[in-house]
Amino acid sequence: MTVEKIQIETLVVGGGQAGIAMSEHLSKQGISHLVVEKNRIAEAWRTGRWDSLVANGPAWHDRFPGMEFKGGDPDAFIAKDDVAQYFVDYVREFNLPVRTGVEVKSAVRNHGRPGFTIETTDGVIEALNIVAATGPFQKPVIPPIAPRDSAIHQIHSAKYYNPQQLPEGAVLPPGMNPVAVQHLPADIRLDYLDAFGAAIHAAFLMAAGIMAVAFVLSWLLKEAPLKTATH
Ligand SMILES: Cc1cc2nc3c(=O)[nH]c(=O)nc-3n(C[C@H](O)[C@H](O)[C@H](O)COP(=O)(O)OP(=O)(O)OC[C@H]3O[C@@H](n4cnc5c(N)ncnc54)[C@H](O)[C@@H]3O)c2cc1C
């Protein structure tokens, strides 16, 4: 491990999509900066999501400025590993200054002079500005309504990767989140649904309705003659 002390104008903590987007914007503005990521670029997309996740929106929409997804079909929904690879390629394409495997341990505002002193696993960084791009979904939330001592096997989506983790039997994914909407049809055998009868079919209809609205909104975003804001 190298232990060094560096000075930089802006330190971006986190190499997920927010940190990489920030780096691209800072580069365009000519602002010197460094992105540090404790794991790998786009780690949340690699290991923090279930195996069959695809992006919520089509490739033409869910991309960053200046680079298309590889593969050529703008209407495709990109699989999570390809999303992660896209961010790696993006960093390479725009030569963004990202250091992986470096964790920020603390950041303290300097006394009597501007900026911050930041301790990392790779040394100390002095920066005038810090951007915290450490992600919005770090802690799984389990609502109090879920019985803690239940004999029913329970798993949070943060720990769910594929149906092989589940014991035999019917499955109830509560909520109309991406896990529920994407996984009922894709991952979990449809005959499990018989156990829930009308209620689950009603949930399916709601999900289908939500997806139809999302599809129309996504089409409108693409086709509607919106003005582009300039400043
Ligand atoms: C289940 C699910 C499905 C989603 N599907 C989509 C989708 O289809 N399309 C879409 O656009 N968005 C989707 N999102 C939202 C998307 O994941 C987030 O918007 C996105 O990951 C947020 O990017 P981020 O860079 O803010 O955070 P993250 O991707 O979480 O990145 C934060 C990074 O910071 C790093 N980090 C944290 N602490 C430190 C530290 N102390 N030092 C150094 N590095 C650190 C982490 O390792 C991580 O890589 C989904 C989210 C979830 C939970």
DSSP helical segment count: 5
Class of secondary structure makeup: alpha/beta
Fraction of residues in helices? Answer: 25-40%
Rg on CA atoms, Å: 22 Å
The average pLDDT is 84
Basic shape: globular
Regions with little confidence, pLDDT below 50 for 5+ residues: 190-197
In whole angstroms, the N-to-C terminal distance is: 44 Å
Give the total of beta strands. Answer: 6
* Largest sheet geometry: 6 strands, mixed
β-strand amount? 15-25%
Distinct compounds present: flavin-adenine dinucleotide
Strand order of the largest sheet: 3-2-1-6-5-4
Features:
231 residues; alpha/beta; binds flavin-adenine dinucleotide
Walk me through the structure.
- The chain is α/β, with parallel strands linked by helices and 231 residues long.
- Helices cover 29% and strands 17% of the residues.
- The protein contains five helices and six strands, in the order E-H-E-H-H-E-E-E-E-H-H.
- Strands 3-2-1-6-5-4 form a six-stranded mixed β-sheet, covered by helices on one side.
- The longest helix has 27 residues, at 197-223.
- Mean pLDDT is 84; it is low at 190-197.
- Flavin-adenine dinucleotide binds at residues 13-19, 36-39, 43-44, 49, 55-56, 62, 103-104, 133-137, 178.
